[in-house]
Amino acid sequence: MKDAAAYLGLSPRTLYVWRHRRQGPPSFRMGAHGRVTYRLDALDAWIREQERVDSRSNPALNPVSAAPQRRVGYTATA
């Protein structure tokens, strides 16, 4: 868990909280003591997904670049 947190640039506590809220990257328990484990490819995939859904990384999601929308039922009068 410490290595995964360091890889993601997070504190182990944040990763712990996310895991119990069922947020963050996928994990599983392994071994006799049920040690929490993260696969490196799952961490990389989770990072890519965060980039994809973040408007700062994905110009298509940036509200500033969206086309203006017309109000429904509104008519301009001058």
UniProtKB/TrEMBL annotation:
Pfam families: HTH_17. Residues 52-78 are annotated as: Disordered. This is Helix-turn-helix transcriptional regulator. It comes from Streptomyces aureoversilis. Transmembrane segments: none annotated. InterPro entries: DNA-bd_dom_put_sf, HTH_17, WH-like_DNA-bd_sf. Residues 2-50 form the Helix-turn-helix domain.
